[in-house]
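Q: I'm writing up a methods section and want to include an example of the input and output format. Could you take the sequence below and give the corresponding predicted structure tokens, formatted cleanly so I can copy it straight into the document?
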Amino acid sequence: MLARDEVTTLGVDGSDGFEIALRERRTADRRIHELIVNGHFAMDSHDSSSEVALADMVPAGAEQVLIGGLGLGFTAERVLQQHSHSHVAVVELSSALIRWAHEGLTPTLGFVANSQRSTLRHGDIIDVLHHQPSGQLWDAILLDVDNGPDFLIHDSNAAVYGGDALGAAHRSLRPGGVLAVWSEGASKGLHRAMHLLDGSAEVIPASVRRGERICDYVIHCVQRPSRQP
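A: Here is the clean output for your methods example:
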């Protein structure tokens, strides 16, 4: 039997130019899955409430949802569960993470990969935002590709939080559609960039308790105006 708090590596891969590891930490009463990127903690399954809160930004009746960043699958899972007619397209930079999802290395990843209403695509969300097929519109675009503009794991992800990428995302929304961005903390620069897209931009708290510490995670979001009657 595994000892308490023993960590098992479920997968490790460096084929995409960076190292990603999926680990399982077993405590006395639960299993916690962790993602480690280039030796840095990215996320775990200890408390997925902020990832769920990101999914809850999707408007009612949504049919097409684009998610940048698979993570441990909690955002995509929530959208699939809460919106029974939606199709969820997930763009993920790590081909290994997509493979592990199809292998079902965690229940949540397996659920997302096996859903007939989800598509997992290996690629960079920046490329997808800038090269959308003509006429492609989304009811929601949810971005959770890094820890936020002020806490980057991949420096190249800074472009995700810039005006060009956010503008491309906003233009790809249907009227009434929502662009939502998860961040480890509130960012004045990100809020300013989203406010320039539309004055409805908000910063929504999504705090999580980790032991004695409160992590002040937030979701930056903006809605594209609906058509006037």
